[in-house]
Design a protein that fits this description.
The complex is a heterohexamer, with three copies of chain A (375 residues) and three copies of chain B (123 residues).
Chain A lengths: L1 H8 L2 H4 L2 H18 L5 H14 L17 H10 L3 H12 L3 H4 L5 H6 L2 H12 L4 H8 L6 H11 L4 H13 L1 H12 L2 H5 L10 H18 L4 H15 L4 H25 L3 H4 L2 H29 L20 H13 L6 H26 L2
Helix pairs in contact in A: 3-4, 4-17, 5-17, 6-11, 6-16, 6-17, 9-10, 9-19, 10-11, 10-21, 11-12, 11-21, 12-19, 13-19, 13-20, 15-16, 16-17, 20-21
Chain B lengths: L6 H5 L2 H37 L19 H18 L36
The chains are: A mainly alpha (375), B mainly alpha (123).
The structure holds sodium ion (3 copies).
The site of one sodium ion (NA) has 9 residues of chain C, from α21.
Chain lengths: 375, 123, 375, 123, 375, 123
């Protein structure tokens, strides 16, 4: 009888709070969005199921959750909390990204810089709301629209907010097709949206090989804090473009990135235990995160319009919105909006240029914030 | 060497653990059993709520086993080949493995990306 | 000369004891069983070769064995001793398991519960033989007929017995085609063995997607201790069934599970150094393990006969034996025995239902034992 | 709960960080932009240095779209099959996956290795 | 302004020394050799890019380099510094190596032993130049012409020299087609180079299965220090040859070895920070390394000529040069040189026998050095 | 900078290590050499012990290189395609990758499992 009692006191039902139930519903919502709506399923399925696992109330004395030293989940979460997984994901992304669109149209790179204003204005907002500078930096990086970068910087600057920031970043990345279109419509005229851009020049194999090497040296020297993320991104890209290391590139963009994605998503989800996660801070972080996506989108579009003041060959300002990263969703949003106005206007490849530049831009931004705020 | 001492069973709480344990195992799997047996009814009830009966779409496909012509066979083999290879090895990203000729155009009139995965959600 | 002497005193020949020779012969026997008889080669080849490696006597002062801190094998064994590998294997199993057989015939699930009696009666036997409650729990789990579950629970409750328990569990799983048939014959009449079962209903895609989510919540809340194992199993299954995360499921059931299987098998084998392994306790564990398999088989068959007392559509009691898990060997044993009596009787799919239910059942059992005995 | 206090922006050095940050991000991407826009000129200048103009090799290939004969179609399908399967799964090492008959000769008159990877550089 | 200053003082440009620039040029040279000349690209691309990353000067206070505790690179480098990666690479090599050439011509195995003289004479040279015995042993192993073995032994005996030794070993392995031919020409007459060897006998499946087991027991008992490397090599080979564990062998020789190669190469490269790497010791190590390759080549060739004094069926002494390992480059060098003299002379398969024997030989050598010098 | 001091060789035990080392390396590889040279004899001796000579089974297969008919070529291509794809990517489990139509029957009159690996030994 005692044993039965002891067991029931260890059962999840007894300790289940409303917070847990709420978070389980959030997890189910993530799974539904991913499976039914097909929003970023490769990320939302692991995160969603992880949320379920993290919100089954565990028994005191048993090492179960990501926060219990010695638990299996804590070992997996180690790759998140120490920032090991994000660079490995960047390695795989590098090995699957084609920078040709960017190489053939260098001036579009600047759109990827402009969109990073979202990071810094959100930082200012977070400071005003009472977050410490370190926390504000980690929150600002949500505006980079880049999951691995956000996790990396949060792990370094504000580990206690990592769960909220990661969930916010991935949620809004999945919601890019919902967030961006109204802003894009608001800030552009119909004439602007109709601008067709000339097909860019062909890019040689040698350019594609030299690019990751040179670009890494530039980024690394300018912002050493971005060295690991950017280094892995361009290392993966060199594995792909050099054509002599195909088997390594292939493993990096398949087995390796898949394994890391599974473990990262699952353990980030499992870190959202209601007891730690359901705080006023989390709500503020979600509000600030939404803002940062909007600001970043505005930044990219407005800068494109600004550039048009000086350019003879006009840019379609829609592609400025792709500067937020969220590869390749925001580029696809741009393409679809362009086609809605003119079905013969193919903006996808043009939008890829600011899109991948945005990845580099937010990694540099993260490096700067880490350098300035690490003390 | 081997000492059989049934008293240890009691001091070790063996009977209680066994009874509790089997009770929990049975209740767990019984709940799962009830869950999966009620699942079809639950789903059809949900479908009725939605009032959308998208039936009679599958039944229209009827396999016609007529004699295949030469080109049809070639087409079929090539299609299977294409579809399967598309997926094998690295699923969506696999297209990028190919070596590219030095000056190939990455541009394509329909605006399709050539080698960034269509579903890469990582960045 | 001194150096030569120093070297020879460091050679394996000098330190080779009869125990080591015996264990090396055991390793060779495992390899023979696996390669010649084709018994569970994916497990017995790594374990068998690991036994060879673990019983080459190492030199004092050199970090070689799994028990020497800082040795390569100790780092690999870390995944075993901390229970990290078993959940990852469950992830891969989930991504390759089809629960349709179980979904289409819910009442067969109970057979997977009944077979777990082997766990608890063995626990009682182990207590009677003088093992501590923690040790007894870890030994009992051999009756779960589930390698990863056995390793996971031993790592938590009785790490010093982990090697013996893992080897016993995997040995008997490989010997399922030898152990089960006589018991099955003894406990069933020819009429019972001839019972044909109706083909079950079709299972919809939606059921297969919702099942892992719902079943995880049930198991997790009822036995939080099983959360990690069961969570990974159903997470893997959701990756497979959701159809939107094919590439993750594919990696989980191929590269990931293969890498973990190699490392787990090899290091479990290497942990069987004669100095640690050849103890009276190990012999007792092997005896108790054999018993637990027999009891579990009886439990499943007898419960099937008990259910037949109430059912109109009779169950073929042979499939009760598949409730012990040992997927998919015990289901295949059931199928073969059914076909021996009536070559037109196809029991495989029916047997898969209690078979996979047995996996869930023993994971729940492990969770209970961990919760009750962790203190 | 939510306290909006703009003074924090100053004490937190927010403006300075923002200005510096955007400056660095822009200079980084501007440098990359200049680098990639000068890359083609740099490369053609290097080529001129080498005085080797290995042009006019690509233009010779002109696709002739004539009607294919039966054996040609078979050959094409088989070739694609062969080439793709060669690579799929395990690239260079994949050849070794096949089960080998017990007594197959590993020797081959042209002296080719059968199963050690042609490019294994590991040992 | 202060922040801007603070940032610029944290920029790489400020801290960039001539040493860093020199090392970056070395990294670029590695990449050029790999991509343009196709010398060992699977190793030199990761190492070369790693050198770039390791020589971006990092900011004090930020955990970036492999030497900063808690940095991402330090976690990856852990697999190098603790010697975990080399055995995993040997696992993959085992799963892709066919020992048939060796099995069919047992006497060629001795050539793989003779070439190990390079290890020990280099050790003597290093002692004479003032290195400690531990350092000398680690430097000597460069003569084993085996990257993983060199890293493994350096990690155990002289971790502070690991970077230099690894870079030297891989550089000279890539340069085998440059280093060996002149020595081979010098030490053999035209008549010797024209010797044709009879095609060896066929090797049965059973021999190929029993070989890794027996050979492991021999090596393990004679030199327990080589247990881990040799154990993994033969374990991988058994996975391949047993034919019942195809899926494990396949993963070991693809996903697993690729992942480890990427991480090993990249982090070894990143460990060559100029501040640690550009020392007089490194230059001595490179000189000694070149010497050791030459001595090893001589050892193999001269021993082949010595064996010819006693053999009726003469060996082509060129294949002695393949005894240095550097699989399969040195075997290919032998083959090409043989064909230059007589296009109908196919030496590749014959050269594979001493080639793979050389791998075993240098692993045994490493085991001996570890045992003797560990104290 | 470089100091050549041969005395270090003696204090560092260099000669002894070299002699011992080469002795051990040679004895190790010599033992392996003897092992593999005696292996065929050992195996044939074991076979004689078993008294079972299962010879003359392989010789019966003789390759007949006759002209292939059209359907035979199709069948051959399809067979290779099938066999290779069966294995590529994920060997035994690969069958399960396919998307399944919503209502497909997992049941099969011959009682075969559709998607649980035939050799999964993990649980
Ligand atoms: Na961005
Ligand atoms: Na079980
Ligand atoms: Na060697």
């Amino acid at each position: 009888m005692e044993t039965l009692n002891q067991f029931f006191s260890g059962t999840g039902f007894v300790h289940l709070s409303w917070g847990h139930v709420l978070m389980i519903l959030v997890g189910l919502a993530f799974l539904t969005l991913a499976i039914v709506k097909d929003y970023e399923p490769l990320l939302l399925v692991p995160i969603g199921f992880g949320i379920l696992v993290g919100n089954i109330p565990s028994v005191s004395g048993m090492a179960l959750s990501v926060y219990d030293p010695g638990s299996v989940l804590s070992y997996i979460y180690f790759g998140v909390s120490e920032g090991i997984f994000p660079p490995l994901i960047f390695l795989g992304i590098g090995a699957m990204t084609d920078f040709s669109a960017m190489l053939s149209n260098p001036k579009l790179v600047l759109l990827g810089a402009a969109a990073q204003i979202g990071i810094f204005l959100t930082l200012i907002g977070a400071l005003a709301l009472g977050f410490t500078p370190q926390e504000a930096g980690a929150i600002g990086i949500i505006g980079g629209a880049d999951g691995p970068t956000a996790i990396f910087l949060s792990a370094k600057l504000a580990p206690h907010l990592l769960g909220s920031i990661a969930i916010a970043a991935y949620s809004y990345m999945a919601l890019v097709p919902v967030i961006q279109p109204p802003i894009m419509k608001l800030l552009t005229t119909r004439e602007e949206r109709l601008i067709r851009m000339a097909p860019p020049r062909q890019v040689s194999k040698r350019e594609r090989i030299i690019f990751p090497i040179g670009a890494f040296l530039i980024c690394g020297l300018i912002a050493p804090g971005s060295m690991v993320l950017i280094g892995m991104l361009f290392f993966g890209n060199l594995l792909k473009e050099s054509l002599v290391t195909d088997r390594l590139a292939n493993t990096a963009r398949n087995a390796l990135i898949d394994i890391v994605t599974i473990l990262l998503g699952f353990s980030v989800g499992a870190s959202t235990n209601a007891d730690y996660f359901l705080t006023p801070q989390s709500i503020l972080i979600f509000v600030l995160g939404a803002l940062s996506f909007c600001i970043a989108t505005c930044g990219g579009i407005l800068f494109a319009k600004f550039m048009n003041l000086f350019l003879r060959q006009k840019i379609n300002p829609l592609i400025g919105a792709a500067g937020v990263s969220a590869v390749p969703d925001s580029a696809r949003v741009v393409h679809n909006m362009g086609q809605k106005e003119d079905p013969g206007n193919f903006l996808l490849m043009h939008a890829m240029a600011p899109n991948v530049a945005g990845v580099i831009g937010s990694a540099i931004g993260a490096g700067i914030l880490w350098t300035v705020l690490v003390h | 060497m081997i000492q059989f001492s049934p008293s240890n069973i009691l001091t070790g709480n063996g009977i209680a653990i066994t009874l509790t344990g089997m009770l929990i195992v049975f209740s767990g799997l019984l709940l799962i059993s009830l869950f999966i047996s009620s699942l079809p009814r639950l789903l059809s009830w949900l479908d009725q709520l939605k009032q959308k009966t998208p039936a009679a779409t599958d039944s229209s496909i009827s396999a016609q086993a007529t004699e295949l012509t030469e080109p049809e066979i070639h087409a079929a083999i090539s299609l299977v080949l294409h579809l399967e290879l598309e997926r094998c090895g690295g699923d969506l990203q696999r297209i990028t493995i190919h070596e590219r000729p030095a000056m190939a155009s990455f541009w394509n009139p329909r605006g399709q990306m050539r080698s960034l995965s269509d579903r890469s959600p990582y960045a």
